Amino acid sequence: MNPFPTSRRQFLTTSATAMSAAALTRAIEVRAHAANDGTIDIALVGCGGRGTGAAANALGTQGPVRLVAMADVFPHRLEGSRDALNKQFPERVQVPPDRQFLGFDAYRKAIDSLPRGGVVLLTTPAGFRPIHFEYAVEKGVNVFMEKSFAVDAPGIRRVLRAGELARQKNLKIATGLMWRHDRPRQEVIQRIHDGAIGELLLLRTYRMHGAVGFTPRQPGESELAHQIRNYNSFNWLNASFFVDWLIHNIDVCCWAKNALPVLAQGHGARVARTEADQMLDDYVVEYTFADGARLFAQGRHINQTWDAFTDCAHGSKGSAVLMESLAAPKPRLYRGHVQTPEHETWRWKGEPWDPYQAEHDEFFAAIRNDQPYNETERSAKACLVALMGRMAAESGQPITYEQALASEVQLAPQLEKVQSLDDAPPIRCDAAGRYAIPAPPQKNAV
Fold it and tell me: What CA–CA distance (Å, rounded) separates 144 from 153?
């Protein structure tokens, strides 16, 4: 069985088949519906695979909804996304040429196309997320934002502040940590919280698979365009393999523990990768919770090595598989720590569940019913825990949660000033075309 499920990048290919003054201000500030007939208008900012998948999920929710604006820095991505979505949702995609925006200010134009109470899907690489999120909240629109949510601690703090302002404005904020909306995981974690395996002492999570792809710089392509097109390979864009690709697992483990770790230590290395980028291909991080419990997180992307994408929990009375594989979570509980069939005490036997769609269904239902809905704080803190692990791996030093949150290191401090793909990127290669690798002992990791 393929251990990896259909991704959002593949989604369309495989699935197309007195009022007091305060109260008055709130009523004016936010409208649950974007039109009198209940239609919710959507803008998509970031038209890659994740964005196109998120838009498909949003357009697949119940009730009248329409995509009215799109934004990207690459014309071919916008066009490809538009055409794919239009093919699947011909009545719901209403994006004329004058609402197809290109460039680094395109996000503003797309958001400005929405009425207050509309929805913007923020799905660009994570380096841009704090900038775009702040603007969306300022303009009074509801937000779905993909993980990751920032690439450094200053970005996380910006997201947290914007999330609090969104709460005050009664805006609805959903995030891309979709496993929180997965019924099988909800069931197993509730059983753990109810004491099914006793006191939780140890969690283990793994994301181990083949090498992440990389496309060499094309003739005539600017350095900035090259890096954005290979956003997975540059930390200022994607926060690192460890953060962007293990954030789901780390979030689920913190959910199971019902706590955030207070300390991280670990190491990272570039073992086999030869591409001209700055990506480490092997991470091991040990997290410690306040009560002394541990979370061990391993991330590796090296060809011809053991593949694993799984989360496990161990308690004083037993153990659990939170996820067997991304394709099929199959959560289950065991007496003791030998996880073989004869020791199994429970397993999920319900129908398959689509957490990608479920998160959008719940988000749009909250908008239509004007119910409180704001996932910002939980999700930003999960991202900070992942960043804390990266900081520990890159510095070779133990990093506390407080140190991580207070860090002033910025990976792209001048990003808001970028206006063109011809502008200078935050990092540059050397004369040989190689980039500095953020490996220990990196002194400015925190």
Answer: 21
The pLDDT tens digits of the residues spanning 281-324 come to: 999 999 999 999 999 999 999 999 999 999 999 999 999 999 99
Give how far Cα 321 sits from Cα of 203, 345, 355, 389, Å. 10, 12, 18, 23
Q: Would you say 388 and 264 are in contact if contact means Cβ atoms under 8 Å apart?
A: yes
Q: Do residues 38 and 362 touch, judged by C-beta distance below 8 A?
A: no
* pLDDT, tens digit, 9 for 90 and up, residues 162-214: 999 999 999 999 999 999 999 999 999 999 999 999 999 999 999 999 999 99
Q: Containing domain of residue 327, as a range? A: 184-351+384-417
What's the alpha-carbon Rg for the chain, to the nearest Å?
Answer: 22
Say what the pTM is: 0.91
Pairing of the two strands 119-122 and 173-175: unpaired
172 with 201, same domain? no
Same structural domain, 310 and 337: yes
d(CA 268, CA 257): 25
